[in-house]
Amino acid sequence: MNPDKNDNVIQQRRIRIDVAYDGTAYAGWQVQPELVSVQQRLEETFAGVVGHSVKIHGSGRTDRGVHAKCQVAHLDVTTRIADISLQRAVNSRIAPDIRVTRLITVAPDFHARRSAHGKEYRYFVWCGEIMPPEKRLYATHCHHLLDVPAMSKAAQWFVGTHDFAAFSANPQREIDTTVRTIFKFTVTGRGPQVTFAVQGNGFLYKQVRSMVGFLMRVGVGAERPDAVKELLDAANPRVARVPSAQPQGLFLWRVWYGGSRVRVHPGKNPR
Amino acid sequence: MNPDKNDNVIQQRRIRIDVAYDGTAYAGWQVQPELVSVQQRLEETFAGVVGHSVKIHGSGRTDRGVHAKCQVAHLDVTTRIADISLQRAVNSRIAPDIRVTRLITVAPDFHARRSAHGKEYRYFVWCGEIMPPEKRLYATHCHHLLDVPAMSKAAQWFVGTHDFAAFSANPQREIDTTVRTIFKFTVTGRGPQVTFAVQGNGFLYKQVRSMVGFLMRVGVGAERPDAVKELLDAANPRVARVPSAQPQGLFLWRVWYGGSRVRVHPGKNPR
Predict the structure, then answer these.
(1) Residue A216 and residue A210: Cα distance in Å, rounded?
(2) Which residues of A touch B20 (CB under 8 A)?
(3) Which of A22, A179, B53, B130 has its CA 20 to 30 Å from the CA of residue A71?
């Protein structure tokens, strides 16, 4: 073996993957003992394709039953397989409820979590009396009508840099601060469907579900919109009046890096 | 017991139900030995609510894996329970992949199949390279781009009264005729999604999936649009060039009666 002949040397490289998944069948993103996670399935499948064990680092965790339109992760591989072939090999082997929507070689210092500039989550609520069967795993059913303008007004209190202690669950792990910055928070209604879209620099454990859970209480008239401000200002730990909305309505929608936003670009028909 | 005291007599009545279902977990609409069907689940659930066995008659069958936005059926019940309470009781007991979206008392001569004036089916195809996980059970993945104008042109040959022998499977039961009338057939593209919508007075076994299967062959350039006319005119039994499209893209969309079309009316948000 001659290490000078570069074309014969298999070099390690870092790849970034964008991943869409239906979280219904998984115990969440992160590997957990005796449970099936999205990360575990990806690690097993990549290992089978590249022929060595791999460790996949996601931009963050998602809970049991939470979905992703675009989770981002990175891993190091030592293989001659080209990016596009690697993507196709993984997608052909892994279950159809997980899809690698993009796979590219990146600089060795790219880090899915540390390099992220921001994230967007979307939360879907269905307010019709009857939950359409094909939506039941991808939206939360609310039997009451929700006051969209009141929820939208309340959501604007979240925008900016605040201590979100009152809107997150005890993470059972050490965190240095509960201060986070929300860039944008929209609440829109379209027929019976209400969509919450929130962008921020990072999110605490159960933060999105706690914010949406409280906004839904505003939506049914149980809380005033400016109660959000009071809870943020007090910055006490979360209490019962801030419930966590159910997981199946939540999607990690996108993660962006270096100023450029990352979206899933689906194919287009010619016309 | 005094039969003259009408208010104390529980009278039998005929009810019509509109049913939405996710067909993924079922062996189709119709009861089959040792398999779980939508009809069976509905019959078991209604029997538990009204306290006597019931027989449910659908507007027609749907195959394994096929969904319904609005199947219509009728059944006779002997109960004092009001329509709205009956609907709620059934929906609270049955699995969330089956929903009774409407329940009304109808005239005793209403018959879900014989009284139907027409039906609409919709078929969804996803042509992006990556199938979004949350669509995988409700659309068919096509790796090729489809020529929507060519498919639309071909679909117009189906409109009218024709012998559809070449576009249906052997039903393994006696049927008097393979002549049916198609009222309307549209093919539309929106981003990577192609939607086929067909309305007719009735459909043969696997007719919709055969028509869509052939249109997709037109869409990839394997057949000319006017080949539809040739196959209809010849009226020979179905051959291999008319494949049956996969079941998971198909939805029974609505059934209409007496000139008035039946739709699912979801609830609306106040604004």
Answers:
(1) 10
(2) 130, 132-133
(3) A179
In chain B, residues 44-103 whose CB comes closer than 8 Å to chain A: 67, 69, 91, 96-101
**CA nearest to A189, candidates A159, A152, A244:** A152
Same domain, A188 and A251: yes
Q: Are residues B145 and B204 in the same domain?
A: yes
Closest by CA position to B13, among listed B52, B39, B48, B70: B52
Number of domains within chain B: 2
Mean pLDDT of chain A: 91
Q: Sort out which chain A residues have CB atoms less than 8 A from B91's CB and list them.
A: 130
Are B96 and B76 contained in the same domain? Answer: yes
Structure confidence by residue, pLDDT tens digits, B136-169: 999 999 999 999 999 999 999 999 999 999 999 8
Q: Residue A7: which residues within 8 A CB-CB, separation 6 or more?
A: none
| pLDDT tens digit sequence for B209-249 | 999 999 999 999 999 999 999 999 998 888 889 999 999 99
Q: Which domain holds residue B42?
A: 10-106
Q: What is the ipTM of this complex?
A: 0.83
Residues of B catalogued as catalytic: 63
Residues B177 and B102 in one domain: no
Residue A266's pLDDT band, with cuts at 50, 70 and 90, is very low
Same domain membership, residue A230 and residue A159: yes
Task: List the CATH number of the domain containing A146.
Answer: 3.30.70.660
Residue A111 domain flag: no
